Structures are given as C-alpha cells and as structure tokens.
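Troubleshooting: if your tokenizer reports a length mismatch, compare against these two reference records.
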Amino acid sequence: MTQEINKAGEWLVVCLCAEWCGTCKQYQQPFAEMAAQFPQMRFVWLDVEDHEELAGDLDIETFPSILVAQGEQARFLGPVLPQPAVLVRMLQSLLHDAGAKPADVQQAQDLLQRLLRADDLPDALR
C-alpha cells in the first residue's frame, strides 16, 4: 500500500464504513461511481470492523465517515451526509483549496499513517 499511495500529491479518499450499516450499503455503489468521476484520486472502501487495527482508537459514530488525503497530508476526516453530491462538492473544493485541513489534524494524520503502512488494505476502487 505504501508504495502505491505514497506518491507525492496523490489523492486518497477512504470511506470508513461497516457491513451491518444500511446507510453504508446504500452509499457503496455511488461511492464506487465517484472513483470514475475523479480519476486523479484513489477511492477505498474500508470496513472498520474488518480492519479494526487500521481504525485504531478512532470512534466512528456516524456513517459514512470519510478520510481525504493528499500524499501524506490528511485534508479531511469526518462524517458526511450519505448523498453523493455532498462528497463530490467537498472533493472539488479540496482540489482547489490547498490550505484545508481536518478539524482534528493529529487524529486524521494517525489514521492516514496506519493506512499507508497497511499490507492488507482493500483494493482501491479505481
């Protein structure tokens, strides 16, 4: 995983979800379709229960939650409305706003580093 994503400036969009979550199940297909809309970004669907070691002590209370990173810099971590247009607008905004950072930078960076080091992260959607 590290070799694939660690390219300078490459974008990573991770949907943190759970298999039991009905909202996540409905969001999965539109999320996969966004991968085609943003070919410059790598989209990953990550079940936080199947990959507890990656989620760490991250307490996700709202699904879907999204991590967006550019290279080794986390740009967003948090819940989003389960409407594809919301994430599309956010990604378009982040592409043009180099200064945007997540509210809890350390938590987002810690999660990103675990993902970058992971050997068993699910395949990217693109």
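Reference record two:
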Amino acid sequence: MFDYTNLHDVFPKDVQIPYDRKLQQEIEAHRKHADGILFIDRVLKALGIQKGKVYPPKTDNALRQLHQQICEAGMSMHHKFSLLYYILLDFDDLSNDIFVSERFSTLSSMPANYQLFMKGLWYMDRQEYPRALEYVAHPSLDPDFADDIVIALVKQASNDDFSLALSYYYSVQPIFKSSVALEMLFDAMARTNVTEALLYSRTYPQHAREQLFRRWVSTVLDTRSGEDLSSRTSELAFTPLDSLEEAWFEEYLTVGEGRNLRKAKDTLLIRKIACDRFDEVGRYRAGGQWASILEGIKAGTEGQMD
C-alpha cells in the first residue's frame, strides 16, 4: 500500500536524483532572474517550511531531509502532496520515458487542481511562461499568488508585449493584494491599449481612480518610441473623458507632475482643439508643426470677435 511517509514510495529507488551540477546551476540562475525567490520558495514559506534554502535538495541526504520536513509539517495532506509533486516534476524532466510525478499523483489520489497549479508554478520557475499560463490560468483554480504571477509575467515581457500578463489577468480576474502588482498590470494595460486602461481605472473608487488616471496619462506620454508616442498622444488627447477626468487631465499637465512630461503641452493643446475650446487655445504659444495651426485658430477666433 502506498505510504507517502516512506521515502521510496514517493521517490523510487531505481530513479536517479536529477540535481546534478548543471540542474543546480540552472535553478539558481532562474532564482537570480526572479529577484532571488522562486515560486516554490514562496509555497514552502507559506506552508511553514522556512528553514534555509531547502530547494533544490542537492544530495540524497538533503532529499531525505526535505521529504521528512514535509511529512512532519503541520499542513494539510493535499499541501504535502503538492510539494512532493513539484519536486517529482524535476525527476520527470530527467528522462522523458519516466513520469514519476504521474505515478505519484495516481497512487496518492492527489486532486487535479493541485496538480495543475503546482505544474504551472514549476513552469513559471523554469521561465517557460507561455506553458505556465496554460496551467496557472486554468478556470478550476483559485487565484493564489496572483500578484507574484502578474509581476513575473510583466517583468519578462520584451518590446512592450504584455500579452501573457494581460491574458492571465483577464482569465483569472484576481483581486490584487499589493499596489505593486496593480500598478505594473495597469502600466502594461496602458502601453497596450489606451482606452482599455482608462475603462479599467473607472472600476475603482474615486481616490484610487484618480491615482490610476494620472498614472495612465504619465504611462502613455512616457512611451519611448517617437512614432508610437505621436499616435498615442493623439489617442490620449481625443479620448472621451468625463468632467472629473477632464479636470484631472488639465491639472496634471499644467501644474501637476505631468507638466514635465514630454509632449505634455502638445497633448493639452490638441485636447483643447478637439473639445472646441478655441478661446483657451489662443493663450498658447507653440513652435514647429503647431505654430501655423495656432496662428490660424487665433486669426479665426479674433475674426469672430470682430
């Protein structure tokens, strides 16, 4: 009969421990890339195993000690199985024709949702993010470690491609516990779709909404690509705003921190033109492409006054 407290019922004698120098270095490199903490480190800490860095177990004796710690820990059986299952995924990786993790999940009757989540975290720790998303965003799962998953997916994005982080968010719809995760997701949203980010900010109470709105303006105008910045500036200036947002917009770009942003003055000017506030446009001075436009507007408004 299967007994998870028996080391060799979990880790078969005929399967070699996979933690050679190469795999140890890979795991440490992944840990360093993840700001010094893997998801398995977070799970171990959350479940009360906080003594030192126990993963990966580098020797047979270290594996035996870790197995004993898990068995003796004051946690649910399913959580114990989850930790053991994660480690066994490393054993699977050693040889494609041996799947000790599947054997373990069958013998232990480990619930499928625990398998899905731990496999997703294993792929996150291996930095195989598209594959990880197939598991951590599964509809049967609760959004555990959602803040950390979003932060990791945003950080790994290149060339402003935040599709993985946004896909995870829209699939899971987590409630964030930290401002860092919220701000990183919102920045990713604003860099991807200006209108979508604005609509998202409107789902928050007024104080938080105002903070997100200012961040929205700042993120859009902070885009580094010159050509993209011009198009996004125009999109920002022509986006329909309500009266509160209109006031926040002008205050932020005239006397607030946003006044020092690149294109702040141009954006405000385009906004006034788009909203037919030509009497206010006359107070602006501009050079380059806006000089002739401003002169034309001033001449038109002065002619109407005469």
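Descriptive notes for reference record two:
- The two ends are 99 Å apart (CA to CA).
- The chain has a mean pLDDT of 87.
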